Amino acid sequence: MAIGEFELIRRFFKRPPLRFDVVEGIGDDCALLRPQAGKCLAMTMDTLVEGIHFLPGTNPENLGHKSLAVNLSDLAAMGATPTWVALALTIPQPDENWLTAFANGFKSLADFYGVELVGGDTTRGPLSITVQAMGVVDEVGSLKRSAARWGDGIYLTGDLGLAGLGLEILLGKTSKKSPEAIAKLERPQPRVNAGMSLAGFANACIDVSDGLAADLSHILNASGVGATLDWIALPLPSAVRQYIESEGDEWMPLMAGDDYELCFTVSREREDELPGLMAHFDCSCVRIGTIEQQMGLRLKKDGGIFDLAALGYQHFPTSK
Ligand code: ADP
Ligand code: MG
Predict the structure, then answer these.
(1) Do 104 and 176 belong to one domain?
(2) Of all protein residues, whose CA lies closest to atom 26 belonging to ligand 1?
(3) Which of 30, 34, 69, 121 has its CA 20 to 30 A from that of 200?
(4) Residue 153 shares a structural domain with residue 80
(5) Does the annotation flag 28 for ligand binding?
(6) Is 100 annotated as a binding residue?
(7) How far is CA 56 from CA 1, 52, 285, in A?
């Protein structure tokens, strides 16, 4: 499309607030709606389209898992506890084997987090999967993109770049082999427990779906701050390091999407409480940089400071 995704949303759909019970409308990982004082319903919706978000012939069980996982990841990014989900399925024809596998992948993840499928829609057409997920979070504890403050530490759960490597492999762009990279791309593990633990503790949070540079920039822009990341601190698995070395594609981990990790910021005075909280995370988590007053996103690497925008990466992908 000629105009970017975010420009399109802003021009055609974003409107001034109308209702007092919309705490957070368009522009964050979830909408926050306040049906009762102090409690928020977090709501998100994501679509996966064959040929755009996944390759034709993708394992249907993995697809069922991923279509729910990407939505649970958005709930986690708000600090919400997932509760209900709706599924709109468009399929070319009702293939029982495909449906059995897809439903298994979807249901086992839903069961794991105690999320109930409460509705949806089924239509015939080119394969496309839309999931709407809902959860609850205390209004004061919710994690917004706009709450990063100068001096905050920047943290990232899990690891970076594996899903990007998985995509390179599936597209035949590298001869590297890495089953863990394919698994990360096709079966991302939403950081639900980390997100719930961070509610009321972290300042800003986002899930990394479009690449760390692009998604952290959403936090920076919404909060009116800048940041410097430390290359040495980035949690790059050995398969990703080997890929960087052999292909020379060192920016891939910052640019590639589909990691579904949480990137969040914590006030300097609370950073020493984080290790205690991480016991509830069921994943690793490391400090990767610092929020600064100076706008923009910088990277400390090999003794220099690289301005990520000046490197030509200011045009983050605006649509997928
Ligand atoms: P995420 O990557 O976290 O899923 P998106 O980049 O998809 O978020 O969306 C950014 C924001 O725009 C979200 O608040 C989302 O709800 C909103 N949004 C996306 N498409 C539309 C639309 N067609 N109408 C209204 N809001 C939209
Ligand atoms: Mg998101």
Answers:
(1) no
(2) 26
(3) 69
(4) no
(5) no
(6) no
(7) 22, 9, 33
The answer to the question of residue 196 being in a domain is: yes
Say yes or no: 270 and 221 in one domain: yes
* pLDDT tens, position by position, 222-253: 999 999 999 999 999 999 999 999 999 999 99
Residue nearest to atom 5 of ligand 1 (CA): 29
The residue range of the domain holding 13 is 5-139
Picking from 111, 139, 167, the residue at the C-terminal end of a domain is 139
- What is the atom index within ligand 1 of the atom nearest the CA of 210? 2
Nearest bound ligand to the CA of residue 31: 1
Q: What residues contact residue 200 under an 8 Å CB cut-off, 6+ apart? A: 79, 138, 140, 141
Residue ID of nearest Cα to ligand 1 atom 19: 9
Residue 229 lies in a domain: yes
Please tell me whether residues 91 and 169 are part of one structural domain. no
Query: Per the domain annotation, does 289 fall within a domain?
Result: yes
Distance (Å, rounded) from C-alpha 283 to C-alpha 260?
A: 12
pTM: 0.94
**Amino acid 187: pLDDT:** 98
Share of the chain above pLDDT 70, in %: 96
Q: Is 74 labelled a binding residue?
A: yes
Residue 316 in any domain: the answer is: no
What average pLDDT does this structure show over 286-296? Answer: 97
Question: Given pLDDT bands bounded at 50, 70 and 90, which one contains residue 317?
Answer: very low
